[in-house]
Write a structure and sequence with these properties.
Blueprint (H helix, E strand, L loop, with lengths): L3 H12 L1 H15 L3 E7 L4 E7 L5 H9 L4 H6 L8 E2 L6 H5 L2 H10 L4 E9 L2 E9 L8 H36 L6 E5 L5 E4 L11 E4 L2 E4 L5 H8 L8 E5 L2 E9 L6 E9 H16 L3 H11 L4 H8 L3 H15 L4 H10 L3
Antiparallel strand pairs: 1-2, 1-5, 3-4, 4-5, 6-7, 6-12, 8-9, 10-11, 11-12
Length: about 350
């Protein structure tokens, strides 16, 4: 009988991303394996949820190059779902050792030759779990399959909980983005098609859209096309930050909640307008004078005290006096703390 500690770990993994990351070594310890790989399975890419027993470069290399030729995953997904299977019974060891997946990936990364896996479907999403052993340890027998079978109901519940919490978080995030003060936010697919946006782009924003066949598409200018492609490259999407004048364009990889397909979240921020709102909020909150408000704007814009004094046409001693009064009202003692407090104001 398996200990309650692993059940507790699985339960926590359904609720917390940090616990999900730690689930691999805990499962491996229970099942006497050297490697553990859990992923969401999609038609052309895998989304690794947790991995253990592989070097740090394995995940990205796997998702980019070897996912499509993984014989363990390919064969395992054809077997009956909801049940553990030793893949040794379906893929001869000699055939595996001579294959491209082993010679170009597994041998160099972890040198595992035995695999036991299971998969199941939850609300249209496939999940695959695989556990690996070195040749010296030996294959997975029926007792190992029985152990994994006993854990599958708890794992199913954990993954379902994880998915539903993520759906709720996505829904809340979209509600927040619908607020007037939220930046222009666009979800786009790899082909630059607009999946969702919270409002039409401002006339002077650096993001342009075209429409063809009833589909809105984002213009790829200002490096946005490369940033979208980088964010939507399967399981290894990369974030980007573009700057165009006073505008900052943040591009981050996200997943479409229903299908888990990779999308790019594009946030277009008017940094000058955000800074002005922060200064106004600070003036209201701390009771600043007009001179102190102007000093806040300069500090938030990265100007030195001397730069501010020169632009304002005042003596540096006057500017220092304004800063001293400003720090007293904010309850801080350093200029850097003033800037941090301003940056923390809701823009």
């Amino acid at each position: 009988m398996l200990s309650s500690a692993i059940d507790d770990a699985i339960f926590d993994a359904g609720l917390h991303a940090e616990a999900m990351a730690e689930l691999g070594p805990q499962l491996s310890a229970v099942l006497n394996t050297q490697g553990c790989w859990i992923q969401r399975v999609n038609p052309s890419y895998g989304e690794v949820m947790t991995a253990y027993g592989f070097d740090m470069g394995s995940e990205q290399l796997y998702t980019e190059r070897f996912y499509a030729i993984d014989p363990w995953l390919g064969k395992g997904m054809t077997l009956s779902p909801g049940k553990a299977h030793s893949l040794d019974a379906h893929i001869p060891i000699k055939s595996f050792l001579n294959g491209e997946f082993y010679t170009d990936y597994m041998r160099q990364r972890a040198d595992y030759v035995h695999c036991m896996g299971a998969h199941f479907f939850l609300e249209g999403q496939a999940y695959a779990l695989s556990f690996q052993r070195a040749q010296s340890v030996g294959p997975f027998e029926e007792d190992a399959e029985a152990q994994l079978d006993s854990l599958l109901p708890s794992l199913r519940r954990a993954f379902l909980t994880n998915a539903r919490l993520q759906q709720q978080a996505d829904h809340i995030a979209r509600l927040e983005l619908a607020q007037e003060s939220a930046p222009l936010t666009i979800l786009a697919d790899r082909g630059f098609g607009v999946v969702w946006l919270n409002r039409a782009p401002p006339r002077d924003a650096p993001v342009r859209m075209t429409e063809s066949g009833g589909q809105q598409r984002i213009d790829a200018g200002h490096g946005l096309g490369a940033a979208i492609r980088s964010a939507t490259q399967g399981g290894a999407g990369q974030s980007s930050l573009l700057r165009v004048g006073r505008w900052a364009i943040e591009v981050d990889p996200v997943r479409d909640p229903p299908s888990r397909r990779p999308l790019a979240m594009i946030r277009v921020r008017d940094t000058a307008a955000e800074a002005a709102r922060r200064v106004r909020d600070a003036a209201t909150h701390f009771g600043l004078t007009a001179a102190e408000e102007r000093l806040c704007a300069s500090l938030l814009g990265g100007l030195s005290l001397q730069d501010h004094a020169d632009l304002a046409g005042t003596m540096i001693s006057t500017t220092r006096s304004h800063l001293k009064s400003l720090m007293a009202k904010m309850g801080v003692t350093r200029q850097a703390e003033v800037v941090s407090a301003l940056a923390a104001m809701r823009g």
